[in-house]
Amino acid sequence: NITLGSLLDDQHWHSVVIEYFNNQVNFTVDKHTQHFHAKGEFNYLDLEYELSFGGIPVPGKSGTLSHKNFHGCFENIHYNGVNIIDLARRHKSQVYFVGNMSFSCLEPQVVPVTFLSSSSYLALPGTLGEDEVFISFQFRTWNKEGLLLSGKLQQASGGFLLYLSDGKVKISLH
C-alpha cells in the first residue's frame, strides 16, 4: 500500500494521476508523487473486468474488501486521453453508471459528476494488453473514507484499489 495526501476530506478539489508503464507506477496526489514498481512478470496491463470509478462494480464480489463507495464529486476523469465523464453524460455505450448521479456539483466548472449515494459508481468495460495506462481526475468530498477507483488485473489474478482512508489517498495492489 502506498499513501499520499492528507486532509482530503476538506471539500476542496484534489488531483489524482496514475501512470503505468513497464511495471513502473507513478502515483500522484496534489502534485506529490510516489514512484514504485508493480510486482509481476508482465509488461502490460489487462483490465479484465472493468475499471470502476467511485465503487466496486459487482455486489458480493468484493471479497474481504471493506471500502465503502465514494460519496462526493469527480471532474476531469481521463483514461488514456479519453474524457470519461463526457462519454457518460452523452450515454455512450463505452461506459455505464449505476445508482444516482448528476453531472453537476455545487461549483459547476468542467462538467463534474456527483455520486449521490454510496451505491453509485461509473464503470468502463475492461481492456486487454494495455502497455501504458494514464488515469487522472479531481475529486472533492467531506468524507474521510471511500473507494475512488478499482480494477481487476487479468495476468496477476489480482487487482488494485485507490481509496480514501482517514482522509488520505491510498493505492493497494492485490
UniProtKB/TrEMBL annotation:
UniProt-listed SUPFAM superfamilies: Concanavalin A-like lectins/glucanases
InterPro entries: ConA-like_dom_sf, Laminin_G, Neurexin-related_CASP
Identification of the protein by name: Contactin-associated protein-like 3
Source organism, top-level taxon: Eukaryota
Protein species of origin: Phaethon lepturus
Laminin G domain location: 1-105
Pfam families in the cross-refs: Laminin_G_2
Gene3D superfamilies in the record: 2.60.120.200
